[in-house]
Amino acid sequence: MSTPGQARTSQARADSFRTACRRSGRPSSCARSAPRKAPEGPPDFPTSYLLPTCEFRCSPAPPPARLQLLPSRASLLPPPSLPSSSPAIQGPPPTPVHAMPRPLCAAFACLAALAPGLSRAASLSLSPSPSRSGAQVSDNLEPSFAGFGIEPSNLFSFTGWNEPNNFSIQLLQNLADYSGAPPHIRVGGNTQDYMIYDADYQDFGWKKNPHSTAQGVIAADSMIIGPNYLAALDRFPKDTFITYGLNLAYEGDDYLDKMINHSRAVVENLNNTRLYSFEIGNEPDLFLQNGLRAAPWDGKTYTTQFMERADTVYQKVLSPKGMAPTFFEPPATASTIGTTFEIAMLNSDGILDKMNGEYYVGWWNQHDYFYFIGVTPTPITLDDLMDMDQTNTQFAYWEKQVKIALNTGVPYVLREMCSIGPIGMHKVSDTFGASLWTLNFFLYMATLNVSSVQMHMTDNSNASAWQPINLYGKDPFVRPQYYAHAAVAQIIGNGNGTTQIGALDVSGAGGDYKGRIRAYSAYANSALQAVILINSKQVNASEPNKDSFTFNLQMGASNANKNIYISYLTADGADSLSGTTWNGMAFSDEDGQASVVDESLYQYSLDGNGDFSINVRDSEAIVANLDWQLGSNKVIKVNGTTTSGSRRKNAASPSVTGAETAIWAAVLVSFLTLATSLGAF
């Protein structure tokens, strides 16, 4: 999508290609208007443009749900005389109000009406299956599932130029320690189709090509990179999977030679990180609008050009290295609706067929944004973003594409995604509310069996998980969105290669909570391990009285009387730009290191039936994990080593012994199989 280092022919696209409206799922509602220039960026980068888009509207809410009086989270905290950093009280924990026998709990609720500071809560009952066999869940999640995309022109902002950007590297390493592998990184975007590799260019940086001759509103040979572009990329944490975007737009007489030279350099120079796949071109469905191709240009023509280049790269670069031919990810498109680039169409055009005896497609790759900024009558608000039903509505057509893709037997990846493109929106995409949106979106994608999701980042985007450099007079810092990545990483690492996610039915949440409640089950070793509960009803930091929503969970008789540990994703309010914590941890704006800022241990017990209830404050999410605190277990890394628990230990935290040795072996076999297919051994 539109990013620093690119410009679009905005008015032409507004007139002829309503992608932003198609992203909303309502093509007919697009309001066209003149493009609006983005804020000034760093002087080295061309200016981005914001495009027309469409309004998001919800259907009228049903009548309010029946409310009942229950205690808020505040009633469960240690008394004021105890410092917030006090360790958990020794011995059996006090029985929380919401785990009392039902008659007593009801009586307490009546008394709570007389107590100041207690919130009123709507409620919902949920019954996750105690066993994976009785649940509809995802495949096992890869440790690298929740990843990032980096615009190629911005790579050095994240990696560092002559010196490494240790702040960015540490933030990625944190996630690797939590999940078992670094987040999957896609280096791709519009600017990949402007880049030419020159082995003689030795700077840490890219330069403008003084001899550019190629076509395009921004020429397809306008940027020069060299070996140190790849050296910088290789600074990311060890074994980081890299999906690398090659230039399809360039079509000079030497286009195949240039692609061979570039792809060979990538294969030979990424040694610390691990090359996972190639994209050939970014968003070819926009090539006409960006002047990168002349008519006729459609999915069939694209398929022909993709296959030629994939075959050439395989025969000349990958095959001599012993690497697999199914190394490519088409079509990397911006839109799915009303184009000739839909998956079924490309399949009919022969993109999954053999060429010279080889299949080349290893993954279906598409892009999306929840919202793409433009001049519209009603711009997006934080409340819109936090309405999770709108996310389902916006992604509905992509859901169909996922199903079609999986029916071909080829995995589906969402390699470019974000809340708001092209560069976010201050006080919307950089808020704690956006962190809740991010957490929900990753879990939602997991339930669809999307294999990997990359949240796109530029250095000047208000939707990036962190700002990697000093920009606009502001030092690097961590945004709330990063905390959602940390939460997902710990959820995945909790199962050590066996984590599966299922969606729980929340259709019973009505009234003010319609579209604001999401619940997911997490399974490990085929058994229920955790539930993730999200309350995205907007409440801002300035509001003194914050309501909550009560989840009544029946975890099954097999879990009767077990301990359950609560981890909070929280901030002062939905509009908070800082102060977010996850699982009692905060991440430093100085060096990216994690520190425990809340030592409290929220440990409770299920009753004799395996039931419990818990309040989740408006604009907050929790993970309720059985038997141990999330993050206290050792996490098995893909190379077979383990990381110590990223959070406080407790007596119930598991070790890597016994049955878990089998998990370790399975993870290692999977790693060796993939490494062999990539030609690493």
TrEMBL record:
Q: Where is the composition biased (Polar residues)?
A: 1-13
Alphabetized UniProt keyword annotations: Hydrolase
GO MF terms held by the record: hydrolase activity
Q: Which Pfam families match?
A: Glyco_hydro_79C
Stretches for region Disordered: 1-46, 74-95
InterPro entries in alphabetical order: GH, GH79_Enzymes, GlcAase_C, Glyco_hydro_b
Q: Beta-glucuronidase C-terminal domain spans which residues? A: 519-623
User: What is the name listed in the Swiss-Prot or TrEMBL entry for this protein?
Assistant: Glycoside hydrolase family 79 protein
Organism, by scientific name, is Paraphaeosphaeria minitans
